[in-house]
Amino acid sequence: xxxxxxxxxxxxxxxxxxxxxxxxxxxxxxxxxxxxxxxxxxxxxxxxxxxxxxxxxxxxxxxxxxxxxxxxxxxxxxxxxxxxxxxxxxxxxxxxxxxxxxxxxxxxxxxxxxxxxxxxxxxxxxxxxxxxxxxxxxxxxxxxxxxxxxxxxxxxxxxxxxxxxxxxxxxxxxxxxxxxxxxxxxxxxxxxxxxxxxxxxxxxxxxxxxxxxxxxxxxxxxxxxxxxxxxxxxxxxxxxxxxxxxxxxxxxxxxxxxxxxxxxxxxxxxxxxxxxxxxxxxxxxxxxxxxxxxxxxxxxxxxxxxxxxxxxxxxxxxxxxxxxxxxxxxxxxxxxxxxxxxxxxxxxxxxxxxxxxxxxxxxxxxxxxxxxxxxxxxxxxxxxxxxxxxxxxxxxxxxxxxxxxxxxxxxxxxxxxxxxxxxxxxxxxxxxxxxxxxxxxxxxxxxxxxxxxxxxxxxxxxxxxxxx
Length: 468
Hints:
Layout: H1 16-24, H2 39-43, E1 74-75, H3 77-87, H4 89-108, E2 115-121, E3 128-136, H5 137-141, H6 143-208, H7 214-248, E4 259-260, H8 273-283, H9 285-305, E5 313-320, E6 324-331, H10 341-406, H11 412-447, H12 450-458
Parallel strand pairs: 1-4
Antiparallel strand pairs: 2-3, 3-5, 5-6
């Protein structure tokens, strides 16, 4: 019996080309992303949230978050944020795109399938049989770079989803502040209408006693009607604000008959503009998205430089006619027409466009932060002036004018002006509270979320940033 030939030990060869090939093709594992992508911390939600990326069946009502308050008539701001972020359809679409990018990152790590070619020829003699097994050499060698580019695209998609969540949180916080202000305006306007009705009764009583004029009764009646019209308009605005809030929560068909929180001023401290700017340039997801897209384009540009070798194949060919012949095969494209210059120029132009977009975004962020911080400081100072100085003076003036009118020492015009100015001061205070809330929401969004604002407040003051 003929024994198979075995090479002697000193003739064994290590397949170094194969080892180098597979070493080059090794890639890092698929990156792990947090379940909520940091959305809970960025939006200030103090509870675990779970996001569903599956589409809602048509006609089905979006379910309310299971962590909502037990009392359906009470809606706190934190509950509104959680319900809005977890139910928003645009955010779910952004999260679905993150899953798409993650699947593409997994696909980039997949080895290319080899191609088996089998040919049989019949002629005068025995049939000729040819078989070849080949695979794309460049696709295997490019696998690490493709994986890095896909990972950068995945990180960019996650940053875009974070930005979408911040937009949703800012929208619902704005709607909540509008509803708060609209509700608070009802009380002074109702009090104003009741005050005019009371003064009209006093004027009518004085007229019956022969101490007043008919013009005073007419004036108070006209102002009472105007105040009632203004009150009804405020009620309509309050209902409209609550409907907007319900839409932000993903419940547009809700009755929106909640009891909202009392107004509280924003907790953002007074810091230097450079401090806020540095925090925004560090945490804004828009800048992170562009940075990751630039990283992906860097790898894609390197891939474009070798695209002319994309059709290169390496494999094994076998032929039997009639004996079996076996050997390696290599096919290389000739870079006669396509030298890869156009693909490299395209990638370079896209990188330049993204760099300019990064500069424009950074400048816009600096402007947003400075304007929001300035608005916060200005509204806070004006609100303090109205509360500490203007309102006490207007209340005192109105009390003196009413006392004089009751005693017959003053006319109706003085009391009407005092009543109107007091109501205007109260409305101004509520409007300043609303503007201060909106400025705080804008500043928090400009910084990159609640977590970025908290980090900026806790960190030492940095040097002034530079935006190109």
